[in-house]
Amino acid sequence: MTQTLNVTIGSPDRSGLEDRLKAVGAGEDVAPHNPTLAIEDLETFGRVFRSTNLELLEAIVEHNPSSIRELARLVDQNPPEVLENVHELADYGLLELEEDGQAKRPVVWYDEIDVNLPLTSTGAQRDAANA
């Protein structure tokens, strides 16, 4: 079964979040929510999803490396550079680092990214851009 991470440009959509949190707090069974990552702007999106980072994510999904050093070997890059990129991806929630002895194992829970890239601005975004 394909697990998809939804990515949008702009502020996170928190509609319904309060109701979902109340339901969880009351012990109700809440249906899974499609996880969505909101990237603040196109410049950040371009940096986070540059080809080097996408190559790392693909290698993690395909090979399930046991460490960052193994990941660096898989993509034929220097471990310090891979470490820096992996930390950036972890900061944005695109992967997790699991402690495995002295090594940190990069883990990606999804195998597909769905990007919602609007080509028009909403009124508030348009007004801010023109200010």
Structure description:
With 131 residues, this protein is an alpha/beta fold. It has one domain (4-130): Arc Repressor Mutant, subunit A (Orthogonal Bundle). It is built from six helices and five strands. It has helices at 17-25, 42-48, 51-63, 68-75, 79-91, 123-130; strands at residues 4-9, 36-39, 96-100, 103-107, 112-116. The strands form two sheets. It has a three-stranded parallel beta sheet. The protein has a two-stranded antiparallel sheet with strand order 3-4. Helix 1 links the parallel strand 1 (4-9) and strand 2. Helix 3 (51-63) packs across helix 4 (68-75) and helix 4 packs across helix 5 (79-91). The longest helix is centred in the middle third of the chain and has 13 residues, at 51-63. The chain is globular, with a radius of gyration of 18 Å.
